[in-house]
């Protein structure tokens, strides 16, 4: 019975100052099969396909509404935690009367 290809140790051939890795046929077939699969997957991902989608004007206004909501929400969060953010960057401790949690 032949040993499994996983148990093979790499064999190096030396020819003067040159060293070359000697591979067995099974591992080279495995790597060519894997490279063929990778090329196939890459080709499938790069081929254009029709989207078959329609974006109406309501979709654009919905996206704009979402952007406005994110900006307003971020502004509100900054306003609520402004004293803590300021204390974090200046290194000064926050005053007791500035704490909005109490």
What's the topology here?
Layout lengths: L10 E5 L2 E5 L2 H22 L10 H24 L1 H9 L12
Antiparallel strand pairs: 1-2
Can you offer a commentary on this structure?
- With 102 residues, the chain is mainly alpha-helical.
- It has 2 domains: 42 residues, no CATH class; 42 residues, no CATH class.
- 54% of the residues lie in helices and 10% in strands.
- The protein contains 3 helices and 2 strands.
- It has a two-stranded antiparallel sheet.
- The mean pLDDT is 77.
* End-to-end separation: 78 Å
Rg measurement, Å: 32 Å
Unreliable stretches (pLDDT < 50, length at least 5) are none
Q: Element order, helices and strands? A: EEHHH
For the sheet with most strands, the description reads: 2 strands, antiparallel
Overall pLDDT level: 77
Quick tags:
mainly alpha; 2 domains; two-stranded antiparallel sheet; 102 residues
What is shown here, in short?
The chain is mostly helical and 102 residues long. It is built from three helices and two strands; from the N terminus they run ββααα.
């Amino acid at each position: 019975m032949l040993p499994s290809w996983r148990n093979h140790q790499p064999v190096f051939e030396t020819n003067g100052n040159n060293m070359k890795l000697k591979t067995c046929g099974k591992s080279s077939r495995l790597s060519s099969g894997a490279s063929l699969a990778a090329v196939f997957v890459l080709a499938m991902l790069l081929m254009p396909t029709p989207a078959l989608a329609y974006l109406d004007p309501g979709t654009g206004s919905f996206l704009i509404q979402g952007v406005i909501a994110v900006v307003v929400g971020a502004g509100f969060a900054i306003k609520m935690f402004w004293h803590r953010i300021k204390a974090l960057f200046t290194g000064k401790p926050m005053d007791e009367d500035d704490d909005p949690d109490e």
